[in-house]
């Protein structure tokens, strides 16, 4: 459980931003969300998902 939590934190802090830099051009703009870049929108979506996973792991840890 600790390793899983640590892995999620590592992904959020280190790997996700690097993936975002590789996938998206910093100048790419998404017209739908008030001028946020596609990369920013993608980062927000994935960070939310990883935060949910982290919360689920914390809840599981409390139950153990």
Describe the structure.
This protein has 64 residues and is mainly α. The protein has one domain (2-63). The chain is built from two helices and no strands. The longest helix is centred in the last third of the chain and has 26 residues, at 38-63. The N and C termini lie close together (10 Å). Residues 29-33 have low confidence and may be disordered.
Query: What is the SS-derived class?
Result: mainly alpha
Strand content: under 5%
The biggest sheet amounts to:
none
Radius of gyration equals: 14 Å
Give the arrangement of secondary structure elements.
Blueprint: H1 2-23, H2 38-63
Summarize the structure.
With 64 residues, this protein is an all-alpha fold. The chain has helices at 2-23, 38-63.
Based on the model shown, name its key terms.
64 residues, mainly alpha, 2 helices
């Amino acid at each position: 459980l600790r390793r899983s939590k640590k892995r999620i934190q590592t992904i959020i802090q280190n790997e996700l931003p690097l993936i975002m830099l590789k996938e998206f051009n910093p100048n790419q703009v998404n017209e739908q969300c008030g001028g946020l870049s596609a990369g920013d929108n993608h980062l927000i979506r994935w960070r939310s998902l990883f935060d949910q996973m982290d919360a689920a792991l914390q809840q599981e840890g409390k139950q153990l």
